[in-house]
């Protein structure tokens, strides 16, 4: 909890800086300040929910991110709950009606580490897979499990950004399956590895998770694998297309690898 003087220092700094998220120093200690964002409206939620029902893919259900005070309440509550469960997440240091303060865990995301160190990318990537597995073994799930929301610091992966709660929209196993797929979606196109190799490593880690989670990831893989026919060149298609293509290509090989393993039993 900040003192009144520390809160005034933060308020003064925020009044001169645009943007929503800031790294500031309070009495020489770096902290992250997150301000409220406007309440959000997402007209596409019913479409996603309908698609999830048609495809029988609960993990595709819309996960509302309300913005405003509701988003702040969700994030603070989730961070406190995850911390109590033993997950490496920022400490909530102070909460006001318009902003809250978090401990600073480090400056480098896994996304950045994968891009800056391609020669050892698999090592960083596997650390992310291990972190997801550990998260699930604690009975928890991430929010948006992209590599940019996973912080690498002193040999440890921590999770950030919890402005929504997937378990309010789907069962825990579906939310955990979603973690695996989102992480793959955010990393497959960055890795300097063949899709066959990525699939083999991915499946090795997935096999350590709960069987219900495994089943949902494999079902999703069978559903979206055809997206591997998308273009794999960033220009002119953009990151969203190539990341979807790369993830689908890997998931196609995950299905094939799973089938080979089963025939050998």
Q: What's the helix and strand layout?
A:
Layout: H1 4-14, E1 21-26, E2 29-35, H2 45-55, H3 68-85, E3 92-95, E4 99-103, E5 108-109, H4 110-116, H5 121-137, E6 150-153, E7 156-159, H6 172-187, H7 195-206, H8 211-224, H9 234-237, H10 239-264
Antiparallel strand pairs: 1-2, 2-4, 3-4, 5-6, 6-7
Identify the notable features of this structure and list them briefly:
3-stranded antiparallel beta sheet, globular, 265 residues, single chain, 4-stranded antiparallel beta sheet, alpha+beta
Q: Please give the largest β-sheet.
A: 4 strands, antiparallel
Helix/strand order:
HEEHHEEEHHEEHHHHH
Strand content: 5-15%
Distance between the termini: 57 Å
**Extended strand count:** 7
Average pLDDT number: 91
Task: Give the strand line-up of the largest sheet.
Answer: 1-2-4-3
- What is the number of helical segments per DSSP (H or I, 4+ residues)? 10
The helicity comes to 40-55%
C-alpha-based Rg, rounded = 20 Å
Shape: globular
Helix vs. strand class: alpha+beta
Number of domains: 2
Residue stretches low in confidence (pLDDT < 50, at least 5 long) are: none
What's this entry about, in short?
With 265 residues, this protein is α+β, with helices and mostly antiparallel strands. The protein has helices at 4-14, 45-55, 68-85, 110-116, 121-137, 172-187, 195-206, 211-224, 234-237, 239-264; strands at 21-26, 29-35, 92-95, 99-103, 108-109, 150-153, 156-159.
